[in-house]
Amino acid sequence: MKCDIKLTAVNIGPHVRLQGQWSSGNNRSVIYAPNGAGKTFLSRLFRLQESASRSETDCDSLLRVGSSSGAFSFSVKGSNDPDSRELDVQLRRGAAPDVSTTNGYVFHTFNSDYVYDNLVVKGYEVDGNISGYIVGGANVDLTREQENLTILTKQGQEIRQRIDAAIATMTTSLREAGVKTSMTEYKDVNFDSLLAMELPSGHDYDRRRDELQKLGTVDSSAFDTTTHSLRLDAGFLEDARTLLSTVYSKSHFEKGFIEGINANLSFYSTGVELWTSDKERCPFCGTAPLGETALDLIRRYTEYLEDEESEVRSEARRLSGLCDAMLSTYRVWESAALRNSGELSKACGLMASLGERTVPYPPDSSRLESMIDALKKALKDKESDITTSFEPRLTIDPILDFLNEASKASDDLGRLGAAVSGALDNLDKQLREGRRELCKEALKKLRMECDSDLRERSIKLDECREAQQLLREKEATSRRERRPLVSDQMERLISLFFGDRYSFDRETFTLLLGTDAMPSTPNRVLSDGEKTVVAFCYYLASIPTVIESDGKWDDLFLVIDDPISSLDFNYVFMMAQCIRDLDGMLADQCGRSVRTRLLVLTHNVEFMNLLMRNRVGMKALTMADGAIVELKGDVLSPYDEHLRSIYLISIGREEPSYTTGNSIRHVVECAWRTHSPDVGKLEDFVKSQDEFSTAPFVYSLCQDLSHGAQRVNLPVHRDEYVRACKVVIDNVRALFPGQVKLLEKEMG
Description:
Strand content: 5-15%
Radius of gyration: 55 Å
Strand order of the largest sheet: 6-5-4-1-2-15-14-3-13-12-7
Structural class: alpha/beta
Shape: rod-shaped
């Protein structure tokens, strides 16, 4: 199955930013990089996932010098997998690493730290303190139970995704409404809160949102909340009441005389006032001195004006003027009050905190005008006939009632204006409270909308628990102890690498010299290369210690960092062969076929070539300049190219060249090291192979200096080169027939 793989490391070891993205046919990759390039830092990040205890020391040792934080991510997405598998590591200097996995692999990492922790500190004595069991086994058919659990899990995940999508939609809506993500009530709109909440009887989310939306449009500076109190002097109405209800006596003056004065009462009143200060001159025409007739007329004017009838008429006219003044004053106030009412009504409509309020409006001045007109008519009639009495309740009481109504409206407007002004002053507080309430109502709405999904999820959880319990019960019937699995594999691996030189005692977990106890500790007996081999054997044998249940074998991911340190060439070949046979080795341990996932890090090109030729790593990569990129085959595999060249010469499709001798030596040496590493010399190996008996000059061709000195002409005749190439191919066919078959298939 094709896998897409991504790796990113930021501020890790020497890496400022390392990125790689590649595809692998079987999730096996080999990355080449020289020493000091930062491979071990990467392997240490994988090993963090295995560590039960992580500390700030881990971060400090992994972070790039001068960096306070770093990050590492590794993800694999199979072509048939719905989701990727991810390992994420966050590092912060002075704190423990934060390691998280999604659909996680079980990583098992071999590097210098593993060797130190498991073998160096113990003097290379293998730790036999292995306990516990691997639950489940190949002899129990769990397919049905596993499939059922997978289906239930997937169904539960789909339900959770629907709920999460609803939560995401709601939180987006809240942010659009101006809710800050730092608000506690906003943070409470989450999955856990939904689970903890009882099903509410209803919600008020839509109304709250509308109210908040309106409140958000309020500009406190745009409202004039100043109200104007109604100030009217209505005391004259009582004077009018007395005037209208009192019956007065008529004057003794002639009717014509009275009518003449009344027609221009103001003129005569002013004249009489002037005469009292200057009685020598006529106040009307200025004649002086006055005659007796004129004086008599002025005295009659004075007498009339001082008469009761004249005073009544004068009072009626004064009161009529006050009526006009009151109406005018009221209209001015009415206009201002109407503006106030409109402003306050708009504010009340936008601010729900004011509650349901009835906005007062001033009584219509047209009503007052009609009442004033009625009063003025009564005064006019009184002026015409002072002996007549009028009922005041028909004219004055309606005006007083109207004024009381207007006064109440004025007071109500004042109180409402003060409330609106206070609300505008606390606008920010109202917005905060509105957003808090909106979040609470949002949670209620979500709880009601997601109720069916939450109920279904609860059912699926119960079903999953039952399925898991059933699976555990069936797995428990075939649990296997870890220690025998480790000891059996360790015994096989020690025998594979060392033959009879060393052996492993399964019972005592002891490394033996042959079949006898070592004369000293393994640390003093083993060479550096042998120590590396023992460490690698223990690494592979101890795989069951990281496996909790039978299903976890399928999640195993091996990370191997430079396992060939200090190894002889024959051990390097055996190491490559061991890695090639990992699937079979793991099948022996878990009792069924297992597909091994693998990432190898190495600084050795030849070791990488061996892995590639044995198809251990399907993808060859290199790490340089902040990137992980693919390497071409002709760069990595000189053996393949040398063998291909010899094969083409042997079948006549290519002519020999000055490098042919070097190609022959390379192929023969590889065959020697791989097939007969116990033979001490290359010459002895050539002599031991029957195919070379017909061409004894092959060894001489291996020493023709074509690999180390300049050649202008061929030192050997062309036909001899062709003949030598043929016998070398025959030898390879005898020792490694698959290699020649692969070439034959490739060349058609």
